[in-house]
Amino acid sequence: MNAKELRERLTLENILTVMETLDAEPIKNDESTYTMRTICHKGEKRKLYLYANDESYSFHCYTECGQLSLFDVVMNHFEWEQSEFHKCIEFICKVCNISLIQTGFGKESNNSTLLDLSFIKDWKRKMKSASRSLIYDLEKPKSYDLSLLNMFQNIYPVEWIELGMTVQTLKKFGVQYSTQYQQVLIPHFDIKGELVGLRIRNIDMETEQRLGKYGPYKLFKRFLNHPLGQHLYGLHIVIPTVLRKKRIMLVEAEKSCLIAYSLYQEESYVVALCGNTLSDVQRNLILMLDLNHVIIALDRGYKVVGSDEYDKWVEKIKRGFVERLKQYVKVSVLLDTGELLSYNDSPFDLGEDVLIQLIDSKITVN
Ligand SMILES: [Zn+2]
Prior knowledge:
16 strands, 14 helices
């Protein structure tokens, strides 16, 4: 049993009991709404609302915190750090008289996770025995407790499946979904498999227009963001293949990395930059891997081949990527010099046939 299962198990009565225990003094407003004191931020006003619809419950704090889950409210109230999430579970179980032992919570709950982490353990073991040159000396980024991923569901939007991502791949990369916020959650790991951030892709059109397509995930009032240029998305999974084939392919979006893995699984050597630039850290990370070949496969950043926009794009790839890599490693660029892709399409967006055509016509610069 994990946090997700606990949430599914909690009844309205349980939730109200938790709120009463925290002195929120909940009062029934109408059939499905309760109002109470804003204990989420130690406020006094009765501006914390609980909406109960068909077994789903959500809170909204109208003075400070915005939309919250029961876990958020409890965590905020006690000002617990994310790493203390197990305390939140224990507290709720205790108040609602749900046995920790029976449900499998307790000590092992710290380590419980929906993710299959065996690959990380494997990787860590390999890292230990790998050559010293692989141990990179970046300032250790802040990492998060993996159990926070327990709060979400292993369900995926159909749009993503239709784009060519398999459920198996999404699971492998720990992609989750929050039904409450209609967001796809994309955990970001560093090369060693430490969780370093959580990005969201908004599915709800209104939210997308308000907040954009992608963004950091907000949890307990904090954004779980991290400097995207510090990592290569997906590297912790494809690293054995990257080292074996001595090559890496750089794409822009997480999505393209996930499509690539869906197509080629253990043969994939595709990682995402999470943008269309190569940071110094990313460049050094690539050079440290001591590869033979780097393939740049960005989205089509121009509408018309041969236009000023096209020239600028080519120049950007030259200066930002090629010039900074070519003295160390063979560099190729996938560039759509025809009409295979539309503006902003990734080479992975239109299926394997298009991808193979682009790979076959790749430009090798050295
Ligand atoms: Zn609040």
